[in-house]
Write a structure and sequence with these properties.
single chain; 288 residues; alpha/beta; six-stranded mixed β-sheet; 13 strands; 17% helix; 22% strand; globular
């Protein structure tokens, strides 16, 4: 039996991007690209990681400038596997020798960019891990479960109804995670956690060729791909889906449905040709 819908909700707009790899948006007059300045205004901006190409300080500063200039009251930012200087353990053991052999970067300075005083207006830094992928940062072994309650899991994803929005760098298995070699490389443990907690919205990136959105109905066991009109996306500067109460019967059924978004800006050839996503949904008002 599903939990009762909160008595009072508010329509909330999210702008979602991922895998920008330090590439700023195109100029505002470049209408041939959806990823252009300014980013679509929203109540909340989510960045699902891979802020940089290989973790240089200059790349972090470029990403910070993009995010800090966006129009959103709240900005939440996580790192990805390319943000190697934010994974200090990986950087000391592997990253510095592999990528910055001549002059290692100052990881404390990098962390200050995202957690210092200037960062208060730009967002927060949280968990960016994904299954081990080509010896990059923030890895865990595929048989390791970081998301579900079990001995040794320090911070499992809460059960429904205690979570509304889930932001991870990598996708769950079989959801917008297919590579150009037709492999589904998402995390099976994360899929199990999402089925358990049933958030309203799950945002991620990591797999560039997986860009898109899906609406999953947990009760009926079916999935609907969110169709987009390319011309409309270019006009709006984003792809969009509205599942708020204003959509009536098409509004999201809390606890029964989840919208999944892969918001990778880069394609598989690292060209910034994909669009940001705009999602409108209802969130509970505190105390309701």
């Amino acid at each position: 039996m599903m939990s009762a819908q909160p008595s009072k909700t508010i329509k909330t707009r999210f702008t979602i991007i991922s895998d920008t790899h330090s590439r700023p948006p195109f100029p505002s007059d470049d209408t041939s690209h959806a990823y252009r300045s300014p980013l679509p205004p929203a109540d909340v901006l989510l960045h699902a990681g891979d802020l940089t190409s290989v973790g240089y300080i200059a790349e972090h500063e470029s990403a910070f400038n993009t995010i800090s200039s966006a129009s959103a009251e709240l900005k939440i930012v996580i790192a990805g596997n390319h943000d190697i200087t934010l994974d200090e353990e990986y950087y000391r053991s592997t990253g510095a020798k592999r990528f910055h052999r001549s002059i290692p970067e100052d990881t404390a300075l990098v962390r200050e960019i995202w957690t210092g005083e200037k960062a208060k207006a730009a967002g927060i830094y949280t968990s960016p891990y994904q299954p081990e992928f080509c010896n990059w940062a923030f890895p865990y072994e595929r048989d390791e479960d970081r998301f579900n309650p079990s001995p040794g899991t320090r911070n499992p994803i809460p059960n429904h109804p205690d979570i509304d929005i889930l932001l991870t760098h990598g996708p769950p298995h079989s959801i917008l995670d297919e590579t150009r070699t037709d492999e589904m490389v998402g995390c099976e443990h994360l899929l199990r956690a999402v089925r358990r907690c049933r958030p309203r919205l799950h945002c991620f990136g990591h797999i560039h060729e997986g860009w898109g959105a899906e609406r999953h109905d947990w009760v009926k066991g079916c999935m609907e791909t969110v169709e987009v009109d390319r011309d409309q996306v270019l006009r709006d500067g984003c792809a969009g889906i509205d599942v708020s109460a204003e959509e009536g019967e098409r509004g999201l059924r809390w606890g029964e449905e989840t919208v999944f978004v892969n918001a990778s800006i880069m394609d598989v050839r690292y060209r910034p040709v994909n669009a940001p996503w705009r999602v409108d949904l209802e969130l509970p008002v505190k105390g309701s």
